[in-house]
Amino acid sequence: MTKTIVLYFSSTGTTKQLAEIIANKLAAEMVELKALKPYTPADLNWHDEQARTTIEQHEHHSRVPVDPQTLPDLTGYDQVIIGHPIWWGIPPRLISDTIDHLDLNGKVLAPFATSGGSTYARSQSFIERTIQENNYQTTVKSGQILHNANDIDQWLKAINFI
Question: Are 57 and 87 in contact (CB under 8 A)?
């Protein structure tokens, strides 16, 4: 039997809601990823050019440290789903740091995101590049922007998780 874990980062709760639906549909464990230095509401103000997230997202190849206490041991899992919002067209820099710290060798990785207007194309490239930088032997499924349970069902079928 295939074992799946759903990891997610959610600053507003939107991604968490979808991660919960996915975890329930797949009878998967769910783990919240947290930044080592938590984000404040001011940090998340994307209208402010001096906001923490604005600065982080524009520093190419930067990493935002994930709280190591939130990183699970993936030994018993075959499939890993990572959910995240999209900030400035890509995942938060915390996601690349998370991938850096997980052993994804031999796993099937499926990313998803929440977004009000982006597609998943740049995020897919971002995830795949981070996998390559770590020299992981990992199958990366096509990621998707998800909004509701119907989107989730279609995506899980398309990537052969259900």
Answer: yes
